[in-house]
Amino acid sequence: MSDDPVLWDVEEGVGIITLNRPERHNAQDQALERKYVDVLEEADRNPDVRVVVVTGAGPAFCVGGDFDTLDEIAETGGFFDEQIPRVLTRFNASIRKPVVAAVNGAAAGSGMVYAMSADLRFASTKAKFATGFARLGLAAERGMSWYLTQIVGLGTALDLLLTGRVVLAEEALRLGLVSRVVPADELLDTTLAWAHDVIEKCSPSAMAVIKAQCYRDTSLHLFQGIAESADITFRLLGGPDLAEGIEAFREKRQAKFPPLDPPSLTAGTPFNPR
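Structure (tokenized):
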């Protein structure tokens, strides 16, 4: 296998990202993090990619920050900007396409951020989760306090963050951390089946808009969210995807939606995904 810290492959519309430091249980170092963000940007630019799947090589998903890197940070007095740049903290929420984490094993600390910042998560029965920050004397970094509060609610988020305890797959399903738990040998197939289903049936433009709405609306008052959704809907009513969707429904066939154009550096809003 390649010694690249992150592998990238595109198969039938699915961009597969594999965290690839199995000898270190895919622990995050600077090279892995930077390559991961580069690959996400490539996924957003590539019109052949409609869904992104993230998983880990070997038995782990990502066990968090590499302790060699953490030692260096501690020795330099926490020189954070050089070691772990803040610009990289957005991860999966920053791109327009659905991102699904296929959590095959341990996801801890910043590794749990990779999973929680995905749009949804499927887990192997061998998966386990731990925030770990409090046990290392760290804050809930990279938006984990936001992600967990949105995903499982304030009380459960505080339990997981304050204790740093390990959550096994079945409890993760019960808490809502993950959407499905399947046997280890079925995880990737299950995740790819979900991806291919939305590729076949859903508009890339509509999914980009809906994803942006869901993240944006967490900071809006209900009535403001309703008003903004109406404005966005009216903009899309005259678009080609709606016409194709209606025609496909009437003809009892799968719609043939166009891919997203590469993102423009001058794009003013996520609600104009083309």
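Confidence is low (pLDDT under 50) at residues 265-269. Residues 164 and 253 are 49 Å apart (CA to CA).
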